[in-house]
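Dear Dr. V.,

Thank you for agreeing to look over these. As mentioned in my earlier message, I'm a first-year student in the group and I'm still getting used to reading structure tokens, so any feedback on how I've presented them would be very welcome. I ran two proteins. I've put each sequence directly above its structure. The first is here:
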Amino acid sequence: MHLSKRVQQLKASPIRRLNIYAEEAAKRGIKIHHLNIGQPDIETPSVFLEAISNCNMKTIKYEHSRGSKELISKIQGYYERLGIHYDENEIIITNGGSEAILLSLISIFDEGDEMLVAEPYYANYNSFYDILNIKRNIVRTYAEDGFHLPSREIIGKSITKKTKGYLFSNPSNPTGVVSTKRELDDIAYLAKKHDFFIISDEVYREFVYGDRKAISFGTYNDIAENVIIIDSISKRFSACGARIGCIISKNKEFMEAIFKECQARLSVPTLEMIGACALYDLPHDYFESTRKEYNNRRKILFEELSKMDGVFMREPEGAFYVLAKLPVKNAEDFAIWLLKDFNIDNETVIFAPAEGFYATEGLGRDEVRMCYVIDAKDLKKAMRILKEGLIKYKKEVEK
């Protein structure tokens, strides 16, 4: 018996690939500061579990394949407060943002079709591309430019007659970049000119720092038929395990296709949707407090990394990630060494090697993605471990 070729070609997630080494270190009594996974440590608002606890259903039944009317209404209200109107049939609830992306790609792409991709990009997109045999048309971005997109003309060189979509996150995972109005205007222009979909992953919308602003593609009314918004409660409300996301689009044909896919997987968990409804009732100052906390951590991470010899990165603008170049030949080897052979007071650190966030062979080998999702005290400890680890590694391993 043989498994399918599509599953055999899947690669392990670079975000979780080192977990086996972390588990072994933990067995040895080593405390590990996790900077590898975007799992916020901020407490999930209590209203989520309270709403579920107060549920008096005698039987937990299937919900509608589109999602509960109440949750869709709450999401409509959330977008109304952003100045964007969506009808009820333009929103479908999904099992997290990841299912929303997968269902969208299934609806749009046939095998061999092409996706416009700016690298580096969220590594788990690769699993979807590989399963569906979607070819990547690469647009390179550079740390020196803060990972912002190049000109419209340069992007256009990566578009072919088989390009059917552009998928990106704004604010960005893994770079922390926040797309400018110029960048969004250029993508909108190219999508209209070449008639492709824009799949805009906007799950980090609230986490933008300084005077920057995350502009939603939902505000681009002239290309509404091209736009698909991916959203989720995971990061916004620190509820990653609840697995509640949504697909939003004014393209009726696309949404009808998504609905048929959702019918095939029956429905999203009923209780989690009840909890999610309560989250959307939280006052807006909830986001102000969480943003303030992440901003403080962002400053710590950037300041500490800036002090380390040979480390290069730009200050992250949004989300809770930074992509940094380290003075090592292979960041994955260094990360494994930190887990196996190095600690300070029985503590060490784990991050995600960045090679898996690139499609171009060889890029990102000396880079890492770090998430500032642990408290400030532990973050400072993690930075000390990284700094001392780099010094020892350069002297004893890469000498």
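The second protein is here, in the same arrangement:
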Amino acid sequence: MQAAQDRLSAIFWALLAVAIYVYSDRFPAAARLFPLLIAGAIAVCSVAMFALSFRRNSAAAGQNPIFLHRRRFAIAFGASVGYAILMSVAGYFTATFLYVIALPAFLGYRRYRWLLATGGGFVAFVYLVFVLIFSRPLPAEFFQAY
């Protein structure tokens, strides 16, 4: 059962990689490299996942549940949906900073100084790479809309 789920998942990811590859033709040549790299990474990982699904021990495959911690999965899924909604309202950097801090806190991580440092560092890194180096705008912040 687990091997079949892994194969279906690998097929899904491979189809996503193909879709990204096809969709990347709509971008200008200067912006096409990043989606192609992402599509390539997804394709390589999906092929590896598909190949590894044949090497698993069949006796142990039925013993692994899909979700080890359903509550944690629900928290992560809900936080991700909330992040997508918040991004359209508050902007990319605000939503990302809050998401990077809130998700681990909801999952039980209590070193708040490290959470703040990680959130700030990640947002600064994304700003440096995408805004300053690649000159790619991200969704505007809520205070820039006015």
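From my reading of the second output: Residues 2-23 form the longest helix (22 residues). The chain has six helices and no strands. Does that match how you would interpret it?

Kind regards,
E.
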